[in-house]
Amino acid sequence: MTYSSNATGILLAAGFGTRFDPSGRHNKLLATLPDGTPVVFQSARRLLAVAAEVIAVVRPGAEKLADVLNEAGCNVIFSIDAERGMGAALAAAVRATSESDGWLVALGDMPWIEAATYEAVARALDAGAGLVAPFYQGTRGHPVGFGMAHREALAALDGDAGARGILSTHAPFIVEIDDPNVLRDVDVPSDLGQV
Is residue 194 part of a domain? Predict the structure, then answer.
């Protein structure tokens, strides 16, 4: 690790991934990239490159996913609230880490974000920005950094909108980056083969 952030990493890994597999039998986060690495393992390792502590949120019953995340180095919490959506999962993680100086929030299905992008967002957050987002060619991506001022709002989130409400009412500090991967996720099986 070249830079270690004061923020706690949060990896959201509790979604259902119905576009990837409408039957629900195959968790996209456990699908493998061309080199054989599970999607969520690589996502976790990228976040762990700048955040010494990463909390991963999974749904109850996702033991195999939890094992992969533990192996990557995350602390895993099972949240029944996560079934209500991304906002509820994020709120559960913030409540579990309420003493943190801030949070660097990433998604488990975005394994290609470059370490330099995580570092740039973390550095801006650690330098005092209350809300930080990377932008690639004018479009906001992930991960997003939240300072302590947003603790209560984050802890009260619910549903599937995530933190969009916070981002729509507070202008983030913009980190312009040259990393299109801040916009790339795994939605369908054909996404796995892209490099």
Answer: no
What residue numbers bound the domain in which 72 lies? 8-184
In a domain, 190, yes or no: no
Query: What is the model's pTM?
Result: 0.94
C-alpha distances in angstroms, 21 versus 15, 31, 80, 142? Answer: 12, 11, 21, 23
The vertex-9 CA angle with 18 and 90, nearest 5°, equals 45
- Give the total number of structural domains in the chain: 1
Say if 107 falls within a structural domain. yes
The CATH number of the domain holding residue 162 is: 3.90.550.10
- Distance between CA atoms of residues 174 and 154, nearest Å: 20
Does residue 40 lie in a domain region? yes
Local confidence pLDDT in tens for the 195 residues of the chain: 478 999 999 999 998 777 787 777 788 999 999 999 999 999 999 999 999 999 999 999 999 999 999 999 999 999 988 878 888 899 999 999 989 999 999 999 999 999 999 999 999 999 999 999 999 999 999 999 999 999 999 999 987 777 888 888 999 999 999 999 999 999 888 888 765
